[in-house]
Amino acid sequence: MGRGYIVEDVVEKYLSNLSVPGASCVTGLFIGQSSSQRDFVVLAVRTPQKDTEGQGSPSVSRRAGNSLEHLDVEWVTEHARQVSRMLPGGMSVIGVFLVTPPELSKEAQNTLRRLIFAVDKHISKGRLWSLTEEDVTEKVTLHICSKTRKVVCRTFDVRDPKSSAKPADWKYQSGVCTSWPLLTCSVGLNLVFPVLEMHVLPQDMEKCMKEGLQTWAKQIEDGLCLINGDAMPGEVELLGGQKKNAKAVQQTFRAQILIPMAEPQSERRSTASVKVCSGSLTLKGMVQCRAYLHSNKPRAKHATEVIKRDVINTVSSRVEIFLEDLLMEGEDKGSVGVQQGLPRRVFAPVPGMSLCVCDYMFPDECVSDVSDRLKEMLDWETPEDSIDTSQEAVPEAPTIDLKDAVVQKNLKAKFTLDARPKTPSEDPTEAHKSHKTYYAGVAMAAAIALLATGTSLIYLSD
């Protein structure tokens, strides 16, 4: 027997209501959480339609006829990355689905295999945290015949390029995530990145910032996580002492991450190297984080893991947004003292569940923009008054300061870090021109500092 999947009954209703026009098909994503024993699926989200010469069409062109060879894999994977950035810690894209007419059923399994490997590769590209031995690398695929409604569930190990399909157990259940514990945290940022040249391209800036983030991400992973002020042993059950028959109630835990001090010189050899710098980038501000943990005997080490990964994902995503914005502006960002506001995190409830997703609202945006994005990306209506915009106050929202260096644009360079699937009303030529099309995922961090004096920056390394 393969892996077991416990699936919210709202997913069954969602899939049964999907319409498949003509001879085309529908693709989409499964969102949930994995554990060592079983996986939990809480949401299904179909891929938005792609605009083709002013006419909406599914992710498989009608010209494909009786074949799935022309399925737009790039479109599906980009949607998956956008959705993954809107998920709080602990939740992720854990699978894909495909709804086809009967005549395309024979091709479905090969197509799903191609999709799930591409989706995982696209989402994990640039990821700064490391997988552990306990991470589940099997992802689920589901094929549904649009006529007979027959369902075929298979899994693939995305870490093994030669992985073959394995059967899986797919069961619907109500209230799957009702009692999932919620972890919250807020942290002040003060990250400094050196700029080695007076005139730099966004590609160069990306390299220096990601190098600094990799060092910082390792510190986060090695940091001590306190839960409700206590340093819990990893194997301690987070919900220990709770009666099995007790009414399911969501518990909230407060997390803190402490960065260890440098080891004594007697235990660690360090050398100093000096690099001449022309300026610096400083990422600072107050950010908020939320993470969810499944209620199947969650342990403290799992809670620590999801909150730390939430930290790393948020900061790296916001840096990507900043770098992309440099390219999209089309003019020099300037010189000393330029400050750019990063989007602040807002939260929106998942209809009928005790979970929230997130989006990022830029300074010149309003709540209606967030509501529109939730509809486009996640395929549900969100009342504007239900969106919580209070978590990251505007005066304390993250910013990036650029000092001394001048950023040169190279609009011909291939530097597209992100591209939101556009609505049918958008002009395809405008798809990559607005920074508002970029979504970061999760937000929280601890401070990291690099010491700078004059034009020299001192690094400590082994």
UniProtKB/TrEMBL annotation:
GO terms for cellular component: endomembrane system; membrane. Keywords: Membrane, Transmembrane, Transmembrane helix. The keyword Transferase does not apply. The keyword RNA-binding does not apply. Its main location: membrane. May play a role in the trafficking of a subset of G-protein coupled receptors. This is Protein odr-4 homolog. It comes from Salmo trutta. The lineage of its organism: Eukaryota, Metazoa, Chordata, Craniata, Vertebrata.
